[in-house]
## 1
Amino acid sequence: MTLGDKLSRLRKENNYTQEQLADVLGVSRQAISKWESDTTYPETEKLIRMSELFDCSLDYLLKDKVETDNKVQTDDAVVLFRKHFREKKSEKTLLGMPLWHIGKNAKGFVAVGLNARGIIAVGLKAQGIISLGLLSIGVISFGMMSLGLLSIGIFAFGILSAGCISIGVFATGSISLGIISIGAIAIGDFSVGALSIGKYLAIGDNARAMIALGRTEAIGSVFQKIGEPTAGDYSAVKELLDTTVPSYFSWAKDIIKLFL
């Protein structure tokens, strides 16, 4: 199988027309046609770009005796992406980046791809100001594993985080760990949850902290209350927060006091 035969087969397998592949590579459709008919040969730079685009080795492209690609087995996500998306890029740029880019390794103000980086990024791995992905990193981040200032995901890590397992300054989730933590199982300096474990304050069915308010069980080293707290209990808790919480957590104490 010649280089032209391989290029033609790979192009069709990845659902590209000659025009579309030419647009991605920055060449004319006639150049693609000549490559596939073995009339001319691509430059080394274009060969490398196509090996990345089609996820194949240069050996496979260049050596006639290599009839099967020796790449690792492509996973289902890559196959699905290739089947439904072709690499496309905006001709307009800003600060050297295209306004939008769709591709395996997409980079643009709006980026969609397996690996996406942009102001708005969507992909299996996404990095951006606003990001959505299996692994998502951004200022505002949504994903199975999410890291950001505002983070939402199965596993969420951030200043404000929400997820099945959530870690952050403000954390809420099935299992949450944070300075202010809300969840079925909540662990933090100030915790609210069915099982609530806190350093300074814990509120829940089962509460354990210096100040513990529990419906069924409360263990507190400074103050504890089992059952429904009264107005007097809340007043006592507020006074105790003022005396037990260090000054560097005064902002968290003030937030908690708003809800007592």
## 2
Amino acid sequence: MSKYFGTDGFRGRAGIDLTAEHAYKIGRYLGYKYTSPGRRGRIGIGKDTRVSSYMFECSLTSGIVASGADAYLMHVTTTPSVSYITRSEDFDCGIMISASHNAYHDNGIKLLNGDGEKMDDAFTDEIEAYLDGKLPEVGFATGDRIGRAIDHAAGRNRYIGYLISLATHSYRGMRIGLDAANGSTWMLAENIFNALGAETYVINNRPDGTNINKDCGSTHIEALQELVKKEKLDIGFAFDGDADRLIAVDDKGEVANGDTVMYVCAKYMKSHGKLTGNTVVTTVMSNFGLYKAFDEAGIRYEKTKVGDRFVYENMKENGYLIGGEQSGHIIFTKYANTGDGMLTAIKVMQVLLDEKQPLCKPRDGLTGYPQVLKNVRVKEKKTTLDDEKVKNAVKEAEEALGNDGRVLLRASGTEPVLRVMAEAGTKEACEKWVDHIIGTMKEQGYVL
């Protein structure tokens, strides 16, 4: 298990788990790896709106240029935009400074390779070895070999143009709600949907450095539901802090999570002969109801470990075109190499406008099982998972639910958190067994 980098980069409490020194040294190593005699490395950097993102941007940039590479600053932007610019402008790698859906006091450094894909473990292990002093220090560039920090807001604007070009319809006459989560889309989402002709109603687009994801965005959908119902909107879209997730709200105020979006889009793609391999890639967190609906629709599916990187790896290996997570990371590999909330919103709009019906109609046929998911902060994830009494509590729940449900206990790849999930015929049964497992963890002294 990696010491610093998890499933979605190096993430932790800013200034404690992830420091400016960490960022500087990461920049130093990246600048060194991508610079060679006669050639400067080219590294793109984006950030979200957290107060600490500016500190990390400066530290990374200092490290990169000190090693002789050039840092291209895209400023406040989204993770998928950094991915797009990295691959389309032949950067050596991309960096996104964000802790995604986490609260403002956390931050993260996400690394993308030259194809705009999440960096492989072998390279992040190399960076970790450098951070821990297990590799020799890299030399400083001098004279005209010192790198440059280059304003590259134009890259962010190119990404906006790219998304607009993917829309197949004008949105004129559509009334659309947008929850920007006080994050990366605080200006981008409104600009894109306005450019496409929509009448937009935007909330949580006043970032102050500390309010990103606070009671808003894809993890707190209630505000968007209220907006859609109050203003009688056609649809609403909620993003997370770095906009690689999307959760939708239909015209009735009902939530459409990642499972629903995959179902709606996959059915549309199948009906138009565009569902390669007749397959959707999901994770083990997707709802039983989704698989039953896919079975009824004659659509195949595959399951991966939790994490959009695992979904993408499966899709890339097999040539599949759509996959994602219940949490709202949806990947359309024809257009992007990462989850992209705004791209997903545009693809959902394509379905609705082509079929001339609200989102509540194409989701017909999908009935989710009652599901309860609780996050538990623990002292040590692996020790808790390996505890025999905790294992027995999980086994007891599995035996009680039998073929009518399931339980899942897994570690977060980005936080000191265990996720306890149950699906069953009733919400009461879900609550009972989730609380049973959490109670056992408390009895064993693992819960913070």
## 3
Amino acid sequence: MLGCLSAKEYSYKKGDTVFAEGDKAKYLGIVLKGSVQPVRVDYYGNRSIVANIEPPQLFGESFACAGLKSLPVDVVAAEDTEILLIDAQLIAHPCKNACHFHCQTISNLLLIVAKKNLVLNKKIEITSKRTTREKLMTYLLLQAKEAKSRTFTIPYDRQELADYLEVDRSGLSAQISKLRNEKVFECRRSTFTLL
């Protein structure tokens, strides 16, 4: 199947750009090791992390399958990362053999795109809140619910969390300190415990 799709494996160091805004929207990537973050940078240089993508998740599939000419985001390695890149058109248009594996791949891709839509809806729910406090608490409560525990670890450092929530880092740090003092939660680095 990988041969049929002309899949190629690549390695990236932390901070390397996997896809740059403006690149052709041709490939989808599968994270094999490490993690990547799609990042939007606006006209003024403000950075917004769209998501943290870890193994075995995909990225770039929506842009490639939608037929966009160029990518509207950068995709950056959040740590040392290994990725499998596949030409999306080779998935979307089955080979002449129309093998079962190819049909299953198309079905799986559709399921993944649908699930990612739900993830983006969650981000909209978080970032549509008006205050930094509301955004942070909505995010943390959703993380606790997903972890099914009041103690959980988030995939972001403070700057990345600020970029994900689309807030100023100093304002976020102030809210974290305030909520800690109010005994709403305890935290150590990226691990939080709701009280």
## 4
Amino acid sequence: MRFNKETFVAGFALFSMFFGAGNLMLPPLLGFKAGDAWLLVTLGFVISAVIIPLLGIFAHARLQGTMLDFAKKVSPTFSLIYCVLVYCISIALPSPRTASVTHEMAIQPFFDTSSLLTSSIYFALVLLFVLNRNKILSILGKFLTPIIFIVVLIIICVGIFSAESPIASSRFQTPVIHGLLEGYQTFDAIGAVVVGGVIIISLKLKGAHDFERNRRLIIKSGIVAGIGLFIIYAGMIYNGALFNTAFESNVTRTELLSGMSLKTLGNIGTVFLSILVGLACFTTAVGIITGTADFMKGVFKNSQKAYLATAIIGCILGVVMGQFDVHSIINVAVPALMFIYPITIVLILLNVLPEKFTSPLVFKAVVIVSIVCSLPDFLASVGMKEQIQSILDFLPFGNYSLAWLLPAIATFIIMNVFFLLKK
């Protein structure tokens, strides 16, 4: 498999759209709590935050349509509802979270200004990039992403060679599952189905209409982005574990990340971290808003007015929601993720499997079972765990927020065995 300059530019652009606020803040605290079980936590985290998103990019390479194609085998109506839900969640939670993180970690330590001013300037710049979307791939891939990657690598490498504290025992009884569920908060699987479409449309705007050539380019760029994400995630989790006796046990995500940069790079680390946070968050917000605007443009028959209106509304919503602190946005996101993530994972997997195993009837059965069985996880996340405890006890992995997993797998196998016997 040959990788050329175009592959790396597209791969770095894809990496930068994935790598945002949660991707930077979540791994260190996860490693901090995991302690000597950091490797198991990394395994779980990589499954939901690297492997599944990478498969989502592969699915886009295979379909090369819009996000509506991901669920079209279930039904056109379901596909539209699913897409609207995903885009609403994307512009209401992960996109504003990038502005909130930028304010807390890149602006507040240096300037005594309001979060409203930060998010207003931030999303004005995001809108500028979104309206010039034909330049997104080259700007992100050639300039912003290499800076992001280099700064993170410096923090990771210095941390590995400078930490002297022994690694304490893990606080997790099920580290792999904790890592898996924490990977939900990166929004990377949802990001794959959103920004994968941005890559495809950007390629077509540049005149690349050769299906097979685009397929190879998207797959290779996905591999580049996946390797980058794996290196950063594993490195940041390991760094968190290395420093898990150097901070108070109740340290917050932002405090830990700031403290680690201070310990590894000194005072200049704060400046480096501020640059990194600003760039990482900004590129993700651009990817989310562009993807949402592309979708609405397609729904309204390629209307440029729909693209512009969606971009403006998404940025205004980002300014409003960006006033909440990071912790509050993460807490609000949990119920939404418990419902939408299982559906997204199932759709990604079904779209990368061979056609002979994924007939429309298989799609419908597996998705319906996933939705039904993810409802207990959703209800538990909104404070109704006591009322549905008997259901959670009955379902395999029900008490680990994975009640949907085995029923979905079983449904897929049963449906295919049924069709095989029928033939």
